[in-house]
């Protein structure tokens, strides 16, 4: 349990406190520091340490049976999962999808991600206008457009570093500037699938990746090892905020980074303005730190939790929560696709595996709302592979063992994230009973997916299977995602929705919490919809968008008009 | 493929519910930290069912039981009672059956894990029954006598027909 020392008011004063050093927070901190604000960047984890876990499959961000390599520590940060029947149970990170974990370290998920670098398509910002209202869903338009964010996407691609060639993707949104690095070459699987897709009239292209195809940003090129997605990079050739914008922010001299600091509350005064944060520092001492403005960037679950726990006279149910929208619309991505078994080694183990993508099924498919990208899958290590068997196959005994050794290099998967339908009741709440190591109520997660998600997954899985069949797979089977359970894992978004109407959203188009002009959100929580793409580049772009807005309106100790 | 078995060993390390790691068999076995001998015998037999030995080591030869024992003494301490209950239930289901290979080559531990690191065979004489799928014979002395004192006679399911417990990782929803 935490120390019970009386909280000390730190004598420090910052212009801005950024809570969370991940994809959004890292970018915001850098934008503010570059614009002369004195910034304190707070991270609950530590600096990521590649050597601590190397390539231990069972302790990675992909297979967490023995723990997560980059946090969180389940003993300190449990959560509560509320089942559809209302029963509650405490869950820890090793329970995976019920915990909905992401990394807890400087850089957060950008340390261990597979690093696909997608720009959302213009339609992704206009889902309601494009498809109309969806019964049972809070599907809506964003208050910003693709054109608004385009310059921010470009900054993210160039400052953090993306390899790709969108000109090979006819569905890619318009861009002013090419990617800064050439795309990665296909591995054998990529070549086979790309050829097959072309025969089907589809449009394969090399995946855009936040990885160095050539030396970039003072760091080396990717060595194409197989343990990429779920792991830190041994040569630092994968680009996250921890090795790009955060060091840049620190180098300005305007930004202070403190690790192992757990923020429990945004302090608010009687007039409804943020005055700083209350937190436990690296030695678990309670501290209050004052700031002119606060940016919350803890990702969808933790950001919602922090806002809900920041109660004040004008916001008795949590900051920005007077209309009960904080924590709602928690979304993630159902992954769906198909497997294909080949009669030769289709994997040549040129990592990280995923290299070819197809955007033919993002938008403009009759009867499908949104859709999703398809790509070949990241290389698996043996434990993950042991879970993949054709339907009906034995999962024990000699047949199980034989499959493992005979087909480890013969299995291809084409898979992608489906655009989920946001649900008002898929939500993060403060648990009324369970508290964490620091005494803060833990997030209680509840809700379920929209039934349409399953239908959309079936559509996308069928397309994936067609590609694998055409590629010559001797046996194919679908893995259809989108079951009824709660969503919101590694691509968690939506819990502090952007919107123009304070009654149906949490923040305005600049991430500013409605009615609290010096409290911002800059992470996946802002997203109205999660798209049919990995969301990280969009979260980074929003970091630039919010950071630039703050910098442009900031004047000394307050905002210009 | 040349050296396919070796490549398999290096690349896979097997996956009996994630519990099978090869390095465990390169060391002389230590006493159990959590299991009783009878519990260990029961669970090891089940693991050998999941990943049987053939020309490559199975769960027993790989020393899976020690790996599980150590996890249950450490990271997964909270699952101790679940394992104990599960083993008791399993033992009840197979009441009356006996694990022939187990009883036959009663676990010559010194031989079992004699292989040096990197050697092609991990243990030479411990492959009881030559790693064939173990056979139950009903009406023999229950090998789990130390676990259950009495159990009513009932229809004997074959252990290897027990449904797979399932894997928590679903095929979809894979982190990207």
General description of the model:
The complex is a heterodimer of chains A (561) and B (176). Chain A is an alpha/beta fold. Chain A contains 12 helices and 19 strands. Chain A has helices at residues 23-34, 50-53, 109-112, 127-131, 146-161, 188-199, 245-251, 299-308, 382-385, 397-407, 451-470, 536-553, and strands spanning 8-19, 39-42, 79-82, 88-91, 204-206, 255-258, 262-268, 274-280, 286-296, 335-341, 356-358, 374-376, 411-417, 427-435, 441-446, 475-479, 519-521, 554-555, 558-559. In chain A, the strands form 4 sheets. In chain A, strands 1, 2, 6, 7, 8, 9 and 17 form a 7-stranded mixed beta sheet that branches. A 6-stranded antiparallel beta sheet of chain A has the order 5-11-12-13-10-16, with helices on one face. The N and C termini of chain A lie far apart (45 Å). The model of chain A has no long low-confidence stretch (mean pLDDT 94). Chain B is mostly helical and 176 residues long. Chain B has helices spanning 4-12, 37-50, 64-73, 80-93, 100-104, 109-112. Mean pLDDT of chain B is 58; it is low at 1-27 and 98-176.
